[in-house]
Protein backbone atom coordinates (compact mmCIF):
# COMPACT_ATOMS: atom_id res chain seq x y z
CA UNK A 1 0.00 0.00 0.00
CA UNK A 2 1.46 3.31 -1.12
CA UNK A 3 1.78 6.02 1.49
CA UNK A 4 0.36 9.45 0.81
CA UNK A 5 3.16 11.93 0.25
CA UNK A 6 3.66 14.34 3.12
CA UNK A 7 3.00 17.33 0.88
CA UNK A 8 -0.32 15.90 -0.33
CA UNK A 9 -1.32 15.04 3.23
CA UNK A 10 -0.63 18.61 4.27
CA UNK A 11 -2.77 19.96 1.41
CA UNK A 12 -5.62 17.58 2.25
CA UNK A 13 -5.47 18.48 5.94
CA UNK A 14 -5.43 22.18 5.13
CA UNK A 15 -8.41 21.76 2.78
CA UNK A 16 -10.42 19.85 5.39
CA UNK A 17 -9.56 22.42 8.05
CA UNK A 18 -10.53 25.30 5.76
CA UNK A 19 -13.86 23.73 4.84
CA UNK A 20 -14.54 22.95 8.48
CA UNK A 21 -13.93 26.58 9.42
CA UNK A 22 -16.20 27.74 6.60
CA UNK A 23 -18.99 25.38 7.67
CA UNK A 24 -18.83 25.86 11.44
CA UNK A 25 -16.90 29.10 11.89
CA UNK A 26 -19.86 31.42 11.40
CA UNK A 27 -22.00 29.58 13.93
CA UNK A 28 -19.21 29.40 16.51
CA UNK A 29 -19.86 32.98 17.62
CA UNK A 30 -23.37 32.08 18.71
CA UNK A 31 -22.14 29.29 20.97
CA UNK A 32 -20.80 31.98 23.30
CA UNK A 33 -24.03 33.97 23.10
CA UNK A 34 -26.10 30.85 23.74
CA UNK A 35 -23.93 30.05 26.77
CA UNK A 36 -24.35 33.56 28.14
CA UNK A 37 -28.12 33.48 27.76
CA UNK A 38 -28.27 30.05 29.38
CA UNK A 39 -26.16 31.15 32.34
CA UNK A 40 -28.01 34.42 32.94
CA UNK A 41 -31.44 33.10 31.94
CA UNK A 42 -31.96 36.44 30.25
CA UNK A 43 -31.92 37.11 26.51
CA UNK A 44 -32.81 40.80 26.64
CA UNK A 45 -29.32 41.74 25.49
CA UNK A 46 -29.55 39.74 22.28
CA UNK A 47 -31.50 41.06 19.28
CA UNK A 48 -33.79 38.52 17.65
CA UNK A 49 -33.46 40.46 14.40
CA UNK A 50 -30.01 38.87 14.11
CA UNK A 51 -31.74 35.50 13.90
CA UNK A 52 -34.32 36.81 11.45
CA UNK A 53 -31.66 38.25 9.15
CA UNK A 54 -29.56 35.10 9.13
CA UNK A 55 -32.55 32.81 8.68
CA UNK A 56 -33.73 34.73 5.61
CA UNK A 57 -30.22 35.07 4.19
CA UNK A 58 -29.37 31.39 4.50
CA UNK A 59 -32.72 30.14 3.22
CA UNK A 60 -32.26 32.34 0.15
CA UNK A 61 -28.70 31.09 -0.28
CA UNK A 62 -29.90 27.47 -0.32
CA UNK A 63 -32.57 28.40 -2.87
CA UNK A 64 -29.87 30.10 -4.96
CA UNK A 65 -27.85 26.85 -4.90
CA UNK A 66 -30.70 24.99 -6.61
CA UNK A 67 -30.57 27.50 -9.45
CA UNK A 68 -26.81 27.81 -9.70
CA UNK A 69 -24.62 25.19 -8.08
CA UNK A 70 -21.68 26.39 -6.00
CA UNK A 71 -19.37 25.03 -3.31
CA UNK A 72 -21.14 22.44 -1.13
CA UNK A 73 -19.30 23.72 1.92
CA UNK A 74 -21.26 26.97 1.59
CA UNK A 75 -24.53 25.03 1.47
CA UNK A 76 -23.48 23.09 4.56
CA UNK A 77 -22.60 26.39 6.22
CA UNK A 78 -26.13 27.66 5.58
CA UNK A 79 -27.68 24.49 7.00
CA UNK A 80 -25.54 24.70 10.15
CA UNK A 81 -26.39 28.39 10.51
CA UNK A 82 -30.12 27.70 10.17
CA UNK A 83 -29.90 25.10 12.94
CA UNK A 84 -27.92 27.55 15.07
CA UNK A 85 -30.47 30.32 14.60
CA UNK A 86 -33.37 28.00 15.45
CA UNK A 87 -31.58 27.08 18.69
CA UNK A 88 -30.91 30.76 19.41
CA UNK A 89 -34.55 31.62 18.81
CA UNK A 90 -35.72 28.81 21.06
CA UNK A 91 -33.64 29.80 24.08
CA UNK A 92 -34.22 33.54 23.54
CA UNK A 93 -38.00 33.26 23.33
CA UNK A 94 -38.14 30.79 26.22
CA UNK A 95 -36.12 33.01 28.55
CA UNK A 96 -37.68 36.30 27.46
CA UNK A 97 -41.12 34.92 28.17
CA UNK A 98 -40.26 34.73 31.87
CA UNK A 99 -39.51 38.45 32.08
CA UNK A 100 -42.58 39.91 30.43
CA UNK A 101 -43.99 42.52 32.80
CA UNK A 102 -47.58 42.18 33.96
CA UNK A 103 -48.53 45.39 32.17
CA UNK A 104 -47.21 43.88 28.95
CA UNK A 105 -48.77 40.45 29.49
CA UNK A 106 -51.92 41.13 27.44
CA UNK A 107 -49.92 42.64 24.57
CA UNK A 108 -47.52 39.71 24.65
CA UNK A 109 -50.36 37.18 24.51
CA UNK A 110 -51.94 38.99 21.56
CA UNK A 111 -48.55 39.12 19.84
CA UNK A 112 -48.02 35.38 20.28
CA UNK A 113 -51.53 34.53 19.06
CA UNK A 114 -51.21 36.73 15.97
CA UNK A 115 -47.73 35.36 15.30
CA UNK A 116 -49.08 31.81 15.41
CA UNK A 117 -51.95 32.74 13.11
CA UNK A 118 -49.68 34.29 10.49
CA UNK A 119 -47.21 31.42 10.71
CA UNK A 120 -49.91 28.85 10.05
CA UNK A 121 -51.74 30.95 7.46
CA UNK A 122 -48.60 30.91 5.35
CA UNK A 123 -48.82 27.12 5.29
CA UNK A 124 -52.59 27.18 4.85
CA UNK A 125 -52.17 29.14 1.62
CA UNK A 126 -50.02 26.38 0.13
CA UNK A 127 -52.61 25.52 -2.52
CA UNK A 128 -53.68 29.09 -3.25
CA UNK A 129 -51.07 29.76 -5.99
CA UNK A 130 -52.27 26.59 -7.76
CA UNK A 131 -55.88 27.69 -7.38
CA UNK A 132 -55.07 31.11 -8.82
CA UNK A 133 -53.07 29.67 -11.71
CA UNK A 134 -55.91 27.33 -12.64
CA UNK A 135 -58.29 30.29 -12.66
CA UNK A 136 -55.95 32.34 -14.84
CA UNK A 137 -55.48 29.49 -17.33
CA UNK A 138 -59.09 28.34 -17.13
CA UNK A 139 -57.62 24.86 -17.12
CA UNK A 140 -56.11 22.26 -14.80
CA UNK A 141 -54.16 20.44 -17.50
CA UNK A 142 -50.64 19.62 -16.40
CA UNK A 143 -51.62 19.61 -12.72
CA UNK A 144 -51.60 16.27 -10.94
CA UNK A 145 -54.97 15.45 -9.41
CA UNK A 146 -53.19 12.85 -7.29
CA UNK A 147 -51.12 15.60 -5.70
CA UNK A 148 -54.25 17.50 -4.68
CA UNK A 149 -55.90 14.34 -3.36
CA UNK A 150 -52.86 13.64 -1.20
CA UNK A 151 -53.01 17.25 0.04
CA UNK A 152 -56.65 16.72 0.97
CA UNK A 153 -56.08 13.42 2.76
CA UNK A 154 -53.13 14.92 4.63
CA UNK A 155 -55.09 18.02 5.62
CA UNK A 156 -58.02 15.94 6.89
CA UNK A 157 -55.61 13.82 8.89
CA UNK A 158 -53.96 16.92 10.34
CA UNK A 159 -57.28 18.40 11.44
CA UNK A 160 -58.25 15.14 13.13
CA UNK A 161 -54.88 15.11 14.88
CA UNK A 162 -55.17 18.77 15.95
CA UNK A 163 -58.62 18.19 17.43
CA UNK A 164 -57.53 14.98 19.16
CA UNK A 165 -54.45 16.64 20.66
CA UNK A 166 -56.42 19.79 21.56
CA UNK A 167 -53.96 21.92 19.58
CA UNK A 168 -54.32 25.73 19.54
CA UNK A 169 -57.23 27.04 17.47
CA UNK A 170 -54.87 28.43 14.83
CA UNK A 171 -53.92 24.90 13.77
CA UNK A 172 -57.36 23.54 13.01
CA UNK A 173 -58.58 26.88 11.63
CA UNK A 174 -55.78 26.91 9.08
CA UNK A 175 -56.42 23.22 8.40
CA UNK A 176 -60.01 24.08 7.46
CA UNK A 177 -58.71 26.77 5.10
CA UNK A 178 -56.39 24.22 3.48
CA UNK A 179 -59.20 21.72 2.94
CA UNK A 180 -61.40 24.48 1.50
CA UNK A 181 -58.70 25.37 -1.02
CA UNK A 182 -58.24 21.67 -1.86
CA UNK A 183 -61.97 21.31 -2.51
CA UNK A 184 -61.99 24.42 -4.69
CA UNK A 185 -59.13 23.00 -6.76
CA UNK A 186 -61.01 19.72 -7.18
CA UNK A 187 -64.06 21.75 -8.24
CA UNK A 188 -61.86 23.43 -10.84
CA UNK A 189 -60.80 20.00 -12.09
CA UNK A 190 -64.45 19.08 -12.57
CA UNK A 191 -65.60 22.39 -14.09
CA UNK A 192 -62.63 23.06 -16.36
CA UNK A 193 -62.48 19.41 -17.40
CA UNK A 194 -66.14 19.50 -18.33
CA UNK A 195 -65.84 22.74 -20.30
CA UNK A 196 -62.72 21.42 -22.00
CA UNK A 197 -64.55 18.29 -23.05
CA UNK A 198 -67.37 20.38 -24.52
CA UNK A 199 -64.90 22.51 -26.48
CA UNK A 200 -63.39 19.39 -28.02
CA UNK A 201 -66.74 18.26 -29.37
CA UNK A 202 -66.85 19.11 -33.05
CA UNK A 203 -70.11 20.18 -34.55
CA UNK A 204 -71.14 18.22 -37.65
CA UNK A 205 -70.41 20.07 -40.85
CA UNK A 206 -73.33 20.88 -43.13
CA UNK A 207 -73.10 21.31 -46.86
CA UNK A 208 -74.21 24.63 -48.25
Count helical runs. Answer: 7
Termini separation (Å)? 92 Å
CATH class of the largest domain: Mainly Alpha
Counting structural domains, the number is 2
Low-confidence segments, ≥5 residues, pLDDT <50?
none
Layout of helices and strands:
Layout: H1 6-40, H2 48-67, H3 72-96, H4 102-124, H5 128-137, H6 145-164, H7 169-200
Helix pairs in contact: 1-3, 2-3, 4-7, 5-7, 6-7
Pfam families: PQ-loop (PF04193)
Subcellular location: Membrane
Keywords: Membrane, Repeat, Transmembrane, Transmembrane helix
Sum up the structure in keywords:
208 residues; single chain; 7 helices; Monooxygenase; mainly alpha
Molecular structure report:
The protein is mainly α. It is 79% helix and 0% strand. The chain has helices at residues 6-40, 48-67, 72-96, 102-124, 128-137, 145-164, 169-200. The termini are far apart. The model has no long low-confidence stretch (mean pLDDT 82).
Summarize the structure.
The chain has helices at residues 6-40, 48-67, 72-96, 102-124, 128-137, 145-164, 169-200. The protein has 208 residues and is mainly alpha-helical.
Amino acid sequence: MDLIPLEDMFVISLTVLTKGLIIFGGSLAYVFQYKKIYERQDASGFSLFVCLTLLIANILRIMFWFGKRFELALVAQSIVMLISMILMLEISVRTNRKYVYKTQRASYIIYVEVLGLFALLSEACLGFPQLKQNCSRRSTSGMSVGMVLVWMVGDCGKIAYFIYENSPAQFWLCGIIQITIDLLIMLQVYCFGKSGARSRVQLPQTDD
